[in-house]
Design brief:
five-stranded antiparallel beta sheet; 588 residues; elongated; 18 strands
Length: 588
């Protein structure tokens, strides 16, 4: 008997049937064979004739039999998907280049929590856009290596989530403006995200932040630490206005719109200033060239300019989902077909990887970081159109990362369908920086994770209209001209064969899309691309030649119509010749 053998309870009884000691008997066969089983005597509704997919079940035979017994219809559908290497691709996470955003020194990369902290919780959130602590003397971001700085960030975030039972021990600072928050369950994390992201009502939102924007005169450091590009920009120090405490997400164009609103008296006084008149010294400090020391003095005295810039500093912190990364663990299943994964210790935030459907449907994907708040998918499509051979799909080839309140985070993903397009982008912007809608953005291609099995295919084949027409109609290139001539002598014209071959090609996906598909998607993996149709053309002609008979060689099929001692009547060939002549007269 098959199955796992179980020793009988009473070893002294020699007449025990071994079949009754198997799991199959206990859990399946015994039930269906037991006529006294009340469950079997209970009237049931007749099963339908619908073909329904079989529900997922375990790997054993018992699991499969149980799933069949519980199936609601007479017919069950099972399928095995042939996954090629492209469908198994996974993107590597693209972490922010700087926690503070923007160019210049002083930026901090996102610090990931320790392993012990990650394993302590089940649900996670990520908070960014906090107000950084500034050094009293330099008015730059304070040193994050000072233990008091991360502790202050943890306490600020804990106060934001105080009503959800979060303490500073549940917060892992990721930088001067961001932190991870841990929760006991994923449901608690979801509730906290929805609760803190809701409108604050009369008390205001807890996510509201006030960045302390200040105006200062620019003073040269005179040291070797000053960057060369800063020296070139501030060649006339008296005409430079120093703005400190600026949110990192504010672009130069947005900063100028706030400081000198278009059409206002301030714009008429200071003149319309292009974004090139701004220089980002650090993530929170911007140098503004007003053109003269007199205009700098007026800006320092103007309360309207300061109020406008302080309104620019009124921002909201953003909350995003975070989860543990899944990493490869081992191979499992029959013949080690399936890759098993496990939870890693690294936390991924919404936007660290592109959406999986978009990533798999494009040959390459580009990560764009540092976008302005008003940048849309239409703007991205227009910017990258020059690098694409076809008209860009605005909504299918772009994705803007958004926070829990649906507001853009400044990051986006752009997909490219054809190979070489993303290389043209990086060739033009070799330093990985570009300007989109006045904001300086960072461009980084998304890389694939290591493919454990298989090799990624090249781009899907692209054929011209002439090549497509040839594939649809030119069946003769797959056949031997001698076979076509021989069949013509037997009365089977080439036009008739052409109709047969076109019918095969047009009405059967086996010889069309399934034959031209890339590896992993073809019906027969052992065949080369496009060879299935070629083989059926040759096999059809060979079979047809074997079935055709003449007076000289009627063939075994024709002779089998008569008894062994009976004379073979050739009159059928005369009748066939007359029939063909009549058809020819009718033009058929």
């Amino acid at each position: 008997p098959t199955g796992f053998y179980r020793p009988p309870d009473n070893a002294g009884q020699e007449d025990q049937d071994p079949i009754e000691q198997t799991l199959e008997w206990d859990y399946y066969f015994r039930d269906v064979c037991d006529v006294d089983n009340p469950l079997l005597l209970k009237p049931t509704r007749p099963k339908s004739d619908a073909r329904l997919p079989l529900k997922p079940h375990g790997p054993g035979l018992d699991d499969w039999l149980l799933a069949l017994a519980d199936h609601p219809s007479k017919y069950a559908v099972m399928e095995r998907k042939a996954r090629h290497a492209d469908s198994a691709r996974e993107p590597r996470p693209t972490f922010p280049s700087k926690d503070m955003g923007g160019g210049g020194g002083g930026g901090h990369r996102r610090l990931l929590p320790e392993k012990e902290w990650v394993e302590r919780y089940k649900g996670y959130l990520y908070v960014t856009g906090l107000v950084p602590r500034l050094d009293v003397s330099t008015r730059e971001v304070a040193d994050f290596d000072d233990p008091l700085h991360p502790q202050g960030v943890a306490e600020d975030v804990a106060n934001m989530f105080e009503e959800f039972g979060v303490t500073s021990l549940d917060v892992s600072p990721a930088g001067p403006t961001s932190a991870f928050v841990g929760f006991g369950t994923k449901l608690e994390a979801k509730g906290a995200m929805m609760g803190i992201s809701a409108d604050g009502g009369e008390g205001g939102s807890k996510l509201a932040m006030e960045h302390p924007v200040e105006l200062h005169k620019y003073e040269e450091d005179g040291g070797d630490d000053t960057r060369d590009d800063e020296k070139d920009f501030a060649s006339a120090p008296g005409s430079i206005l120093r703005i400190v405490g600026v949110p990192a997400a504010v672009s130069p164009a947005e900063l100028l719109r706030y400081a000198f609103p278009p059409g206002s008296r301030l714009e008429a006084m200071f003149g319309p200033l292009p974004p090139e008149r701004c220089f980002r010294k650090s993530p929170t400090t911007v140098l503004l060239d007003l053109g003269s020391s007199d205009l700098v003095a007026r800006a320092m005295k103007s309360s309207n300019v300061l109020q406008n810039l302080q309104a620019c500093g009124a921002r909201e912190a953003q909350v995003l989902r975070a989860k543990r990364e899944r990493v490869f663990d081992r191979w499992a299943g029959v013949n080690n077909r399936f890759a098993k994964s496990k939870l890693g210790t690294r936390l991924l935030v919404t936007g660290d990887v592109p959406p999986q459907p978009m990533y798999l449907s494009h040959h390459d994907t580009l990560h764009v970081e540092g976008l302005g708040r008003g940048t849309t998918l239409e703007d991205l499509a227009a910017f990258f159109q020059e690098f694409s051979a076809d008209s860009r799909d605005v909504y299918g080839s772009g994705h803007v990362v958004r926070c829990s309140r649906g507001r853009p985070t400044g990051s986006a993903y752009v997909g490219f369908e054809l190979p070489g397009e993303i290389e043209r982008v990086m060739e033009k912007y070799a330093d990985g920086r570009a300007k989109i809608n006045g904001a300086e953005v960072v461009l980084r291609p998304v890389r694939d994770k290591l493919l454990r099995r298989g090799v990624r295919d090249t781009a899907r084949p692209s054929r011209s209209v002439d090549e497509l027409n040839s594939d649809l109609t030119d069946w003769e290139r797959h056949a031997d001209p001698k076979d076509i001539a021989e069949l013509a002598e037997l009365g089977i014209d080439k036009e008739i064969l052409g109709e047969v071959m076109q019918t095969l090609r047009h009405h059967n996906r086996t010889f069309a899309a399934s034959d031209q598909a890339i590896s992993g998607e073809r019906l027969y993996q052992e065949r080369q691309q496009g060879t299935h149709y070629r083989s059926i053309v040759r096999k059809y002609l060979k079979t047809l030649k074997g079935c055709v008979g003449t007076r000289e060689e009627p063939g075994l099929m024709y002779e089998a119509m008569f008894a062994p001692d009976q004379e073979v009547d050739m009159g059928l060939f005369d009748m066939e010749e007359d029939r063909i002549k009549k058809l020819r007269k009718k033009g058929i």
